[in-house]
Amino acid sequence: MHMSKTRFIFAAAMVLGLSTPALGQQVLLDWGPNCFGWETDYAGHISEPGSVLTILGRIDAFYDPLDFLDPETNEYTFVFDSLLSLGTVEIGGIIFETEYDGGWFRIYEDTTPDFEFGIDPPNATAPASFTDGELIMEGPLANVHVVLVDDGTPPGATGTLTGDWVITGGSLSYLMEDCYGPLLAAWTDDPAVVPIPQGYTCHADGKFDLEDCPGTPVESETWGAVKQLFR
User: Fold this and answer.
1) Is the pLDDT of residue 170 over 60?
2) Alpha helices, DSSP H only, in the chain?
3) How far apart are CA 81 and CA 103, in angstroms?
4) Model confidence, pTM
C-alpha cells in the first residue's frame, strides 16, 4: 500500500471511525469521495493570509432525523464558502496548521443530478451545478481549522479539517432550526492519495455530527411522526 494512502486512511479512521461522538451526539450526514476544494492563494501546504477557501461536494447519506432524504433518488450537494484564511503556521517543516475565519454552508436538493467539478474553478459547472437545486439547509461555519502532516513523501500531505456548524435557514430549517454540531473530515492536498482535479487544492471525506437542537423535541417517536409527513 502506498505510504500516502496509508496516512490518509489513518487520518480518516481517527476522524470518522475511532473518534466516537460525545455523549448525546450522533451522525447527521456524511460524504465521501466527491468533495474537493480550492483556495485563491495556496501552494506547498501554505495558505496565505486572506486566501479564500471554497469546498464543493455531494452527500452520500443522511441519518436520523434526516433519514427520509434519499441520495439514491435525488442529488444532495453542498457548498462551503467565504472561509477566509488567517494564514498557515508551519511547525518544523512537518505540521501545517491553518485557521479560517467566517464561512457559510449551503445544502441543496436536486431532482436532476448533474454535479460536475470541472477544472480551474470557479468554472461553468462549479459551483453552479452544486447550487442549482432547492436550498434545504444553510448556516454559518465557525472555528474551521485544518491540520496537515507532511512525512516528507512528495508531493502532498494529509490531516484533518474540523469546525462547527449551525442551521439557520433553508426549506427544512423549520425541522432543525438552530440545531448545531461539529464538522469533521479527513483532509489531503496529496494527488497521490486521491486524484485532485486541476485547479483544486484539496480533497475532504467527512461528516456533520448533530450535537443539539435547542427548543426542538429530540425523542425518536416525535421525530418519527414528523418524518412520516415527508414519506
Assistant:
1) yes
2) 3-12, 173-176, 220-228
3) 6
4) 0.86
